[in-house]
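Fold this complex.
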Amino acid sequence: MNEKATKTLKFAKTGESVRVLKVAGEGALRQRILDMGLTKGAEVTVRKVAPLGDPLEITVRGYELSLRKREAACIVVE
Amino acid sequence: MKKVIALAGNPNSGKTTLFNELTGANQYVGNWPGVTVDRKGGRLTEHEEIELQDLPGIYSLSPYSPEEVVSRRYLLEEKPDLVINVVDATHLERNLYLTSQLLETGLPVVVALNMIDLAEADGYTIDAEALSRKLGCPVVKVSALTRLGINSLLKHILSDSPAPPAPLRYIPGVEEAVESIRTDLGVTRFEAVKMLEGDPELLSTRSKKECHRIEEKRLHIETEQDDDIASVIAGGRYDAICAFIPDIMPRKAVKETFSAKVDNVLTHRFTGPLIFVGIMYAIYYISINTVGDWGTGWANDVLFGPVVGGWLAGFIGNEAAGVEALTMFSAILAMILVFPAMLRRLHDLNLNGAWLYIMIAPFVLEYVCPHLPGYLHTGLMWLLYAANTVLLLACLVLPGKKTANNYGTAAVCFSKNPMKMTGRGSRADFLAWFIILSLVAFGVALLGRTTLNCSPQLQSIITDGIVAGVGAVLGFLPQMAVLFFLMALLEDCGYMARVAFMMDRLFRAIGLSGKSVIPLLVSMGCGVPGVMATRTIENEKDRRMTVMLTTFVPCGAKLPILALIGAMIGQTASVATLAYFAGLGSVILGGYLLRKTHMFAGNYTPFVMELPEYHIPRGVSINLRAMERCKAFVKKAGTVIFLASALIWTLTNYNWSFTYLPEQEGLQGEPINHGMLADTGNAIAPIFAPLGWGDWKPAVATVTGLIAKETVVATFGQLYPAAEQAHTNEAQPAEAETAENAAAPAEDELPRSCDLCKANALSALTVALWRTDADARACAPAEPQEEDEEEEAAEQVADNTDKGLLDYLNDAVAWLFPAPEEDEETVGVATNVAAAGVFTTLSAISFLLFNILCAPCFAACGAIRREMNSSRWTLLAIGFMCIWAYIVAFCTYQIGLLCTTGVFGTGQLVACGILLLILVQAVRPNPNQSAKD
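Structure:
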């Protein structure tokens, strides 16, 4: 897969709604992201960015989840 | 019939509330083996043969977090007779993900659709029948908070042989693979799915050939789906859930909720941090300065003074206590004893917040009323009395919740521990315990008239040793209770998760996560709750590191030490600033260095956290959380402090031949000078010599500081009596009132420590501090050393820019943190200590730094032991703190000496070496980290 052309959740704008295509990464972190509902096809809305610019707040499957940009970079979206 | 039932569900699904409703007061708390996860169990109120096991809150059964590991192991190995899956009806989709895994285990499952009242208020209508058909297991609508549906849940618990569940289906390819593994190997569906996912624990029990076959199936699915197996399985579960959600929940609210609006302000880029600072300051102000301070003042001046003291003197002494003191003693004891029964009864009446009123009302009467004008005073007083009467009448008369059917019969009621705070209490329960416990309190109070006249030794160990020691710590309880209550309030309404969210970026820089903010903040009040607050940090490494760092923050009990040293060198505000910066600096630098050691290094730890919706806090859960923490605090004070106080008392009052010193005749000075403690102090004093205070007295004070940090001041008071001043320090001018003078004693008095430094109290290190004070500056020219004047002048030029900054910092710190109070007693002690000439400004600062950073008091050590759940880690943590404190004090002192005297000796060399090592450790790359990070 062409890595440059794919968009990750990290670069989604505040207020934007996107659909998850794939979750990269490995092991516990990846399993955790999947368990929290960020699976293929899930719709994600970026709610806001924390005051210091890092963790993101997203809405997924009807609840609010916070994750760092580093984790968001593992999530490939449409 | 005996039965074991497990309670499983997501965090924030109301699992604990349901558990409390079902078990009432029949609970016990333990630990899961090997991990620091609370294990809560209990028995049903009316069916004692049924045991309920509360599993930790989890999102999934993938065994990654310790909570998931213990839950999974419990379900698979101990096979409970029934699993109650608590599902938050307002977040159905994510909650049913865990349900889908529970169904696969093959255990009988009942789904408790919790918070159904909230979901319906939000406009969701959930068809429980349809959901039950889809999941193949019974679904019960409940609301743990209002006890809705609890009885129908109980029916399911009591009925035999619940229907076997029908697990959700995956997409065809996966389904075939799972079924073939299940039938081939004869395992449960859950195990089959896990093997397909490549779970190493389960695969290790299988032969190579079988593993290979499973591997083949996995590869086949992965190529077919163009995705890996973990994603296919997790996605499959969510897809299966999403497929039927529209059928059971037709309408979905889309409007922006109240929660979202609140959140927009509370975590806003600009207002968010401001509100956070405001809230924290308010909490600090309420719990430490006002309400908590009244309580602590009352406990120290009234309760442990005339009331308990008078009663004890009457009981074991020979002076019968006065009626007034006994009446008060009896009333207070009765209030404490009846309190749990009151709490149970209030819970039953849904008046959960009322206990706070009961606690605060007496203090309002005592501390606020006298400042009000006459008519308001009388009015408020009558209002409070009327409210008390109404509350008491309500407890005795109102029937309570009719649906609450867990009172039990009279026999059951009396077989229970009256001091349990969970569960609900009936009128009869309350009335009975009210009468019985009041009589008990009255009886105990009457002992105050017995005048047993025990031996003075016994009297002394009880009053001076144990009551004084335990009282000093229990005196903090009112502050703690208010702090715990407010913290629980913020946790319950969902704000704490937002704090972690906002602060994460800041704390990641030093290797911690946003969740470490709370323990550090709480530690400013007291380290014990601070350490206990680390429990919310999921990641074990982060939690251990936070425990090791959090007591560096100067807590309330360290303020008297600040005041003492401040009075000694005449700079209270600057000393406070220094202490806070040393504490925070140690947290930051210590965290940064620890993260790079092999213990804590490792791969990046994720920070994926649910931000629960804001809601109005619920009285019960706040009460219980706050009470549990208070109880843990009291338990610690009651056991650890009890033993430690008795030990220190013995060491102080006996010499090695076990002669009771206060009765020995012909001793010079206080008995403490001759006890075992003095000898111990002498033995360990050389250790502290490189820090500049190698005398036995400060060493002893440091040791007694382990009971409670403020004891350091009291010990100094005993060790440096005012009389001593005259004969040890005759060269001192008579008006040696202030510490400045002490810093400049005659040279010939100081045979062993650095004369130059001592004479030059305005040493380079503290030059900037001194210059802020006009009086100090006026004193400065009195210093006789010429060579240093040049140096000072040079420093003055160099430090000119810092002057304004330091002033500013002092002001900021004085505003943010309560400045240590300089009461007359502390100043008196400071004068005496200073007059004894043991300390220079530099060594006083080194003493302060060591005492602030070294091992915390015994209560906090106990808390550390509890949270670490391992002796090795506890020792490691305390050892780390002591060594760190030693290094900081050592480097400060030795480098300070270098700056003031210009002498470069072994001490300075070692200090420079240590600083270099710290630098190397800080700069070197993180070990154990995979190349990708």
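The first helix of chain A runs from residue 27 to 35.
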